Amino acid sequence: MAQLTHTPVMTVLQSLEQMSQTKEERLRALARERAVWDYNTEIQVAEERGEQRGLEKGREDGMQTLLRTLIEARFGQPLPDWMLSRLRAATPEQLQQWGVSLTQAQRLEDIFEG
Q1: How confident is the model at residue 27 (pLDDT cuts 50, 70, 90)?
Q2: Three-class secondary structure assignment of 5-27
């Protein structure tokens, strides 16, 4: 466990030590302290995972939006529903490949045939 140096925390721990004079009471206090530490660590890890997932989702959404905008600009028409569905379901790798295919495409369908 990390060494605690924050004065208020140390004061509370010292008070707890004084209140818990028996070995059994000290062990219970230590178990509670560890449980709180573990809980806080789990919360922090979950928050970091959530942030990472949010960033990944944001990148994918941005890629989808950019590709849709470029396709519409190139072909000058709103995209058909089948193409919008494919864009929404695509992986980041597919979106990148379709972006490359867009540079050579003569018609909408050519983007997805490569």
Answers
A1: confident
A2: CCHHHHHHHHHHHHHCCCHHHHH
| Domain layout of the chain by residue ranges | 10-113
Instruction: State how far Cα 65 lies from the chain centre.
Output: 20
Nearest to 29 by CA among 42, 15, 43: 15
CB 101 within 8 A of CB 114: yes
CA distance 89 to 47: 26
Q: At 3, phi and psi to the nearest 5?
A: -75, 130
Rounded to whole angstroms, the Cα distance separating 74 from 87 reads: 16
Q: What are phi and psi of 21, to 5 degrees?
A: -85, -25
Q: Does the pLDDT of residue 1 top 60, yes or no?
A: no
Which pLDDT score, from 0 to 100, does residue 114 have? 64
pTM attached to this predicted model:
0.61
